[in-house]
Amino acid sequence: MKINKTLIVISLLVVLTLTFTACSDDDSSNLDPQQDGRLKVNLNQQSSISAQAVDKKIEDKITITEVELKIYKKSDYDSNGTDAEVVESKTEPGESSNEIGTIAFYLPPSQNYVIEAVLSGDVTNNGETNSVTGIYQGVLDSTGVLEEQASKSVTVDVTTRPAEELDVTINGIPSTVGDTAVDSMAVELSIPKTGDVVKTISSEDLSTDGGTVTFTNDDLTLTATSAQVNVQLNDSSGNTIEKENAGEFGGEILLLPKQSQSLTVNQQPYLEVADQTVDEDSELQFTVNAEDPDGDSLTSLSVSNKPSGASFDPSSDNSSGTFTWTPTYEQSGSYDVTFAVESSNGGVNSETTTITVNDVNRAPSIDSITNVSDGSATITEGKELSLAVNATDEDGDDLTYVISGTDADEFSQSGNTFTWTPPIDDYSSDNTFDVTLEVSDGTDTTTKDVTITVDDDTTAPSASVLTITSDNDNSNLAKAGDTITLSLTASEEITTPSATVAGNTATINNAGDSDATTWEMNYTVQSGDAEGTVSFSVTAEDAAGNSSTFSSTTDVSAVEIDTTAPNWTTEPNITTAADTSSVGISAAVDEGGTAYYKVMSDGAEAPTASAVQDAGNSVEMEANTEKEITIDNINEGTENNIFFVAQDSGGNLQSDDQVRKINFINLNTGENLAVALNGTVTTINVTSDLTLDSGEVHTVDRDLTIDLAGSTLTLNDDIEVTDGNTLTLTSEEDGAELAGTGEITGGVEKDNVITAHFEVTSLNHDGPVSEGQDLNVDVEVENTGSAEATQDVVLSVDNNQNGTFDIEADTQSLTLSGGEAKTVNLTYSTQDGDATEVDVKGSTDDNSMTATAAIETSDFAGGDGSSSSPYKIENWNHLDKVRDNLSANFILVNDLDQSTVGYNDHVKTDSGNLVNSGKGWDPIGVDFETTFAGEFNGNGKTIEGLTINRPTEDNVGLFASNGSTSGEAYIHNLTLIGVDIIGGNSTGALSGINYNQITNCHISGDASSVSGQGSYAGGLVGDDSGVITRSSASGSVTGEYFVGGLVGASQGEIIKSYSSAFVTQAGDSSDISNGCGGLVGKSSEKISNSYSTGDVNASNAVNIGGLVGRNAGIVEKVYATGDVASGTNSGKLVGKNELSGEITDGYWKGEGETGIGWNQNTATNITGLTTSEMQGDSAESNMSALDFTNIWSTLTSEYPKLQWQ
C-alpha cells in the first residue's frame, strides 16, 4: 500500500505507570547521602506498557526515547499554570524500545507539589519514523503521597506522513461463480474517521486480472489504525453475482506508513437438498450432496436440529450423506433440519430443508364388552343386561358409540353403555337377539357383533339379609308396647310380601313400593306374649310368579319380654331445705316409669313397696335422668322419714328391699339442733342462722350430715364424733359459714362452708422503682373468721393499666388463727414494656386490694456501662441507645430479630416500610470524630434483619465508625444474619470504618447483601485501618471502587478470616487505580492465614483477584477458590502486586491459570492447584506451607478450614 500527500493522524492509548515513594528520616535505605531528610519521588515506566496500552497491530513499533519530569509548587501552579517556577526538572532516556527507567527527586517536605510528566518517542514502520508524545499531571501532597494513588493513562498522538494513494493487491479471483462467469470486480474501502462513523472509498469496475487496486484519500483525519476492504464480483452485464456459493470475501489493512495488504478470494462450498414429505410410521430416506467450486476438499458434512430417531451418514469424502428417518405416530408436524459443509480452505455453508410429517389416523380398538364372552351374552327375563364398550384410541381422539342391528331399538344408551331389561314373557321357543356395537373416532369405525340369549326366570326369591330390632330402652329386652321391626332384603325385586309375627299379622311399612328388594315390617309386643322366642313368617313372590316363605327359626335372634323392675341410678337424696316445712329430693332410675313416695313420722314401721305405691304420691321418671322432687308439709323440729319406690312403664314394681328411706330433721332453733345432734337422725337441714350455746358437749355416734343451706352456724358448744363416723357440714348455696368458739373433734368434713375469712386490710409498696428493678409490696391480711386456716396471698400485676391483672408475680402461703393478722412481703420484677405506672393487686381467696406504682424507664436492661458491669442490650430500643453512650461498654443478652421489641421503631414497620424516611437503621457513630469508642460484646448472640438504605451517605453499617487512630474500641462475638445494606463511601454490614479491633464477628446468610455506591465496600467492613481476627462474611457485596467480600480497602491487619461472598464491581471499573477481590479490594498492610471461596465479577475491570484486587502490603499463607472475571490485571489469587507488595505461600484453584495478574515485586511459593489437590487429606501435602497443626484443618471433599470455624 502507498501513502503520500494526505496527513493521517491516529490517536493511541498508552498507559504511563507513575510510582511515587515518600522517604522519611527513618528510611535511610532510600536516601541519597547528600539529600538526607527530604522526600524522594520515583517515576517508573514498566515494560508491560505496550501490551496493555497500544493497539496490537503496532505495539512493537513504538520506541520510548525519553521522559521529562517537571515539579511545581502547587500554590504557584494554581495561580500561574505552566508559567509557574519549576522547582525540580529532569529528563531521562528510555532503557529499551518500550521501557523507561527511574527518575528520582528529593523535595523539601511540608509542601504540596504539582508533577508534570512528558513522554516522548516515535513509531517506526518500514523505515519511516513518526513522533509520539503524551502528558500526565498529578498532585503530590506534603507527605509525599499522590492524592490518587494509582497508575495514570496518557494519550499519545502518532502522526504519519502525508499520503494520497492506498494500494491493495487482490489475489485468487475465481473465473466462475456457480454457472455464472466472473467479468469484473469492484473493491470498497471502509475507514473510520473523525466526525463520521465510516468513510467509504470505492474503486471503478476493475478487470479480474488487474491485481492491485488504488484508492485516493480525501484529506481525512483517521481515528483507527486499520480499514476494512470488501470485494464485489460482477457478471458481463455488470450485475452483482449472488454470493451464496462464492461467499463474502475481503480483509483488513493497516493505515501506517509503507504498509500494504494482499487479499485472497475463496469461494464457499455449497449443498444440494430439497424439502421432504413423509407419513407417520413410514421410512424417509434422501441424499444430501455437497461440492466446493474451487475444488477444495470437504472436511465436514453435518446435520443439526435432527429429529428424534433420525440418522445421518456422510460419505468418507463428505461429498454426500444419507438421511434416514421413520417418524413415529407422535411425530407429525413440520421439522426444519439444517445441513452444514466445511472446506479445507475455511469455506463454510449451510442449507435448511423442511421435512413435513403427515398425520396418519389409527382406528380405535374394542378391548372388551362387559357381560359378553366370545360375542355372546346371556340374561334372565326381568333382569337388566348392561353392555359397556371398553375402547381405546392410540391417537387420543374423542370416541362415539352406536348400537345397531335387528334388536338395537330395545336398548337405552348412556355414553359407552347400552342397557336392556327383557320383559316377563315366554322365551322357550324364541330367545336370541342380535346387535352390533360400533366405536368411531370420526375417521375410522370398529364394530363387534353380539348375540344375546334370554332365559325364562324359574328361580324363587331368597332372603339375603333378615334382621330384627326393637325400639325399647332397657338392654334390648322387648316389653309390652315395644315395636319389633323385621328387615328383609330379597335376592331380587318382589311384590308386597305378607308377614306374621307371634301368630299375628305384621304391618308392612313400604307397602306402596311395588317390586322392591328391601322391605320393613313392624309388630307391637302384646302384654300376653310369652317370654322367649318370637316367631315370624314372610311370604314373597317375584315378577315371574316364583314365591318363597322365610321364617325366624334359623335367621332371627330371640326377643325377651321385660319382667325386670327398674334400678336406682341415683339414690334418693336431699338437695334443698329452703324452709322448715319442705324438702327437695333428687333421684334417678335406669328406665322410664313412675316413682312413688310416702312421708312418715320417726318411729313408724317401714312400709312395703306396695304400701308406698298405695300412698298415692307419684312423679313421672325418664330413664337415667335425675328428677327433682319437692315435698311439702314437713314437720319442723321433729325427725321425718320419706320412703321411695319405682315402677317401669311395663308395670314392673321394685321389691320391698329396693324401697329407699331418707331420714332428716328441719331446724331453725339451736335448741332443736342440740336434740338432733344427740338423737338418731342422719340428716339435719338448717333453714336459717342458728347458734348452739347450751354449754354441753354433744356426741355424734353415727354418720351425720348437716346442710347449712347458705346459713351461718355459730357453734359455741364442742362436738365429739365417735370413731368410724363422720360429721359432714355441707351447703349447695354459697355463703354458709361455721363460726363460734366450739371445737369439733373426730371425723369431720366441710363442703362449701366457710370456717375462716382472710381479709386484705392494707397494701403498700416501695415505688417508684427503675425499669428492671424489683418492686416490693407489703400485704396485710387478717383472719376475721373464727377458725385457723391457710390460704395463698397472691400478687398480680396489670402492667399496662388495661384492667387485666394477667401477670402473677409472686405467691406466699399464710396460716392465720381466727382474728389473727400478719403482713407478707411480695415482689414484682419490673420488665421492659411496662407502662410508667402499673397496678398491683394483693389477693386472698376471700378479697383483694389494689394500688398504683410508678416505673421509671431505663435506656438498657441493666448494667452501668463499666467494664465490670456493661449495659445489657435485649431489644432494638436498647441497641439504639448505644449511640448516646459511645464510650461505654455493652453486652448483647438476647438475639434480636424482626419480632424483637423496637424493630418497628428503628428498622422497618409492620407494613414493610423502612423507618427514618425510608432509610432504615441509623448507623451508630458518625465519623472519625464521633465514633464508637467502647466495647461491644455480642456474647455469641445474633442480630437478624438489619436493613439500611442510605446510598448518598458515607460510613454506613450497624456502626458508622469503630474506634480512632488513638482509641481502643472493640467489637467481638457478634453475628449479623440476613442484612440488606445500601450506602455510599465506606459501607460494611458491621461497620463502615474500623480503626481498632474486631474479633469473631460474622455476616451470615446467602441472602445477606451489602452495596456501596462509592469507594470502599466490604461484607464486614468498608474501610479498615485496625485489626480484624477470626471473622467472616457471606452473601453478596457490590461496589464501585475498592470492593471486597470481607473488607473493601484495608490499611490494617486481617488474621484468620475468610469470605464466601459473591463480589461484584460496578461503576467505572476500568479505572486502573481500582481493585476488587474475593476477600479484600485493596490491601496496604498484612493478610495472613485467611481465604476466600466466593466468585469475583467485574465488567471491563482492572486489578481483579480471587483474594485481593490490589496488594501493596504482605499476603501470606492464604488461598482462593472462586471464579475471577477476566480483565486487565486479573489473577486467581491477586490482581496486581505492587512495588511494595510481598506474597508468600499462596494457593489458588486452577492449575495452569494466572495467579497474579501483574506482579511488580516479590511472590514466593505460590501455585495453582486442582480441586482434588486442595481438598481432604490431599490439601495437607499440596498446601504444605499452611500450619495444619495449630491453625488449619482438613475435611473430606472440602477445602481447608480454619480451626476456629
UniProtKB/TrEMBL annotation:
Residues 382-463 form the Cadherin domain. GO terms for biological process: homophilic cell adhesion via plasma membrane adhesion molecules. Pfam families: Glug, He_PIG. Residues 1-24 form the signal peptide. The keyword Signal applies. Residues 289-325 are annotated as: Disordered. GO terms for molecular function: calcium ion binding. Keywords: Signal. GO terms for cellular component: membrane. Residues 297-325 have a biased composition (Polar residues). This is Cadherin domain-containing protein.
